[in-house]
Amino acid sequence: MMYFNNFMIRTLCVGLLVSLISACGGGGGSTSPSSPSSPSTPVASSNVIPLTVDLGPAGNDVNQLFASVTLCQPGSTSQCQTIDHVMVDTGSTGLRVFSAAIGSAVKLPRLNAASGFPLLNCVQFVDNTYAWGPVAAADVVLGSKTAASVPIQIIADPAYNALAGPCSSSGTATAITNAAVLGANGILGLGLFKEDCGSWCATQLANGVYFACSNAACKATVPTTVSLANQIKHPVPLFSADNNGVLIDLPAVSSAGAANLSGSLIFGVGTQSNNQFASGSVLTTDSSGNITTQFAGRSLSTSFIDTGSNGLYFDSAAVTTCPKGGAADGFYCPSAVTALSAVLVGANAAKAPVAFSIGNALTLLSNSSMSVLPTLSGPMNDSQTFDWGLPFYYGRRVFMGIEGQASTQGTGPFYAF
């Protein structure tokens, strides 16, 4: 899930509704790289929760990965609520849940900025939309794992909606206010980093991400720095075990697609028998979480791998784009399925060849019952970036090592597959 901010140093990407996907799309190939770590169906374990790809709460999403998340009032085992269809996004950090999805019985304490007034978070997306809301503390429960007192974002909290102006950088951006707009009840950011902004927001006042009420009346906001402790956090490093990374394990899908699929989110890298890395390539990233994609004679140095993007997004003059203004505007529409290849290169110079195929988006999107489209792709409109979205994960076991966390494959951040 990629959101931007003029000051952000971490690249993130989101897959939204079909009509919005072109802002950050990307489709991946169903053909595995050489010497892959093959997908498997793990047995039930303390470090596994189920994943699904389906049409989502709005009934029209494609290539959207979902999980269920339980939120509890900090320290409570009774004041809890399980929220389904939360988007699993390896391109962002932290949990963000709509206020409307949280029942009135669950009281999550709001966090304050250093000024003592409420702390607010802004997320800006590439399609000129944004999410705004207060930062709250919650115990985040994923299967049998619990991360205690995690700062999360409450999206579209009515008490703070009127203060969202600073989050619309252009003045014309549209607020994401409900699950129908986002295509999910929230976002579970399981990316490479421990906090959503890191040292930048801890030291730079005008960071564009965090704000505080200007006074007790809370009729306006001001920019604020925020400590690492109070920034929206990746829950996995806060687990007592299996806390050094995540593994997305999804089955292969034929180029024709499927109505839905099921897979697994496995916590930890090399910590249990079900998260061992058997073979493949380990690609370390730069400080912003980027790798390089060598494609069509070019080196795209700000590339990334992201479950939050619903297709493969990259620029190619050789692939026909779909008609402007049509149902598949913003995607590729080749006359026949087109086979392509690329090489992914890590900051450690490790390489992984990847074969993938591009289908005709008009044809793919014409079947409204299909949510799994492994050949969906579109232009990135960025000559330095290849966004390897959710289709990349079909038929692969993709590991992600979290920054600063040691594992059998080294210390994160890294991708391994």
List the helices and strands and how they pair.
Blueprint: E1 48-53, E2 65-72, E3 80-89, E4 93-98, E5 119-124, E6 129-142, E7 145-155, E8 174-175, H1 179-182, E9 186-190, H2 199-203, E10 210-213, E11 221-223, E12 245-249, E13 261-267, E14 282-284, E15 291-295, E16 298-305, E17 312-313, E18 338-345, E19 351-358, H3 361-365, E20 377-378, E21 387-388, E22 397-401, E23 406-407, E24 410-411, E25 414-416
Parallel strand pairs: 3-9, 4-7, 6-8, 16-21
Antiparallel strand pairs: 1-2, 1-13, 2-3, 2-6, 4-9, 5-6, 5-10, 6-7, 10-11, 12-13, 12-22, 14-25, 15-16, 15-18, 17-21, 18-19, 22-25, 23-24
Report the radius of gyration as a whole number of Å: 20 Å
Q: Treating each run of at least 4 consecutive H or I residues as one helix, how many helices?
A: 3
So, CATH architecture of the largest domain? Beta Barrel
CATH class value of the largest domain? Mainly Beta
* SSE run: EEEEEEEEHEHEEEEEEEEEEHEEEEEE
Largest sheet: 6 strands, mixed, barrel
CATH homologous superfamily of the largest domain - what is it?
Acid Proteases
What is the topology, as strand order, of the major beta sheet?
2-3-9-4-7-6
Structural class from helices and strands? mainly beta
Kindly state the mean pLDDT as a whole number? 89
Integer tally of domains: 2
What share of the residues lie within helices? under 10%
Distance between the ends: 20 Å
Residue fraction in strands? 25-35%
Please tell me what the overall shape is.
globular
